[in-house]
Amino acid sequence: MPELPEVETIAASLRRKVVGLRIAALELYDRRLLRGEAAELAAFRGKKITAVRRRGKMLLIACGGDLHLLFHLKMTGGFHWTDRGAPGDVHARLRVSFVGSPRDLLFRDVRRFGFLRCLDTGSPLDAAELRRLGPEPLDMSAEEFAGRLSGRTGRLKSLLLDQTFLAGVGNIYADEILFRARLHPLSKASGLTAKRTAGLFAAVKDTLKAAVAAGGSSIRDYKDADGMDGLFQNDHRVYGRKGEPCPRCGAKIRRLVIGGRSSFFCPRCQRGRPGAPAAN
Known about the structure:
The chain is α+β, with helices and mostly antiparallel strands. The chain is 21% helix and 21% strand.
């Protein structure tokens, strides 16, 4: 599933192309994509796109007034440009055409888990899909992070994946963050010293910033809206590297399953008794 860096990259690539364009039509190819009534799409015809932004792992496209298109890409959703009127492929779920533009924007989704919701509100962040999200990691202060971490008793990996704790971090970046912070994924959040907490916060910021700068991670089929691959997969230090040497100490990277998801870590650099407070 695209995470914060990938969705941020997609938002930036869309922003360059669509802000200022006026929507000519929206053609829905797969009714399952839309949360709501198909008739709601008619309100967006003729509207000018004024902004594209990310919230957590979701995209908000502002279309003038109170109208917004809210997309969640889920596992395989993505945007692709095509010539005006060119037939969409079997994975196209939505086509957006623009006044005076020779190109259309397709939303494609192989697995069909993604969704679109039409919003007509001056407070789109209050939509059900967005209002329970935690703060944006790149906008947090160290003090806010420490305050949110205080009193938490869950495992660090599970906590980083909790979208009500932090918005946008997923499996890839949770593993990379914990490696940089030298923390075992099964260690508990409780018991972290102030120094360890500061180190974890710095790892969150540094990892996500580097991933955004690299355009995200292209592991399977992720591309931005310009069709470009991300490059951060070349800098993964543990994720997907089971059995390979740790780039820091040379020990073999291990894999374990937490909550049904693979987690990769270095047993030497990220020491800690599973289920125990992180080593100080």
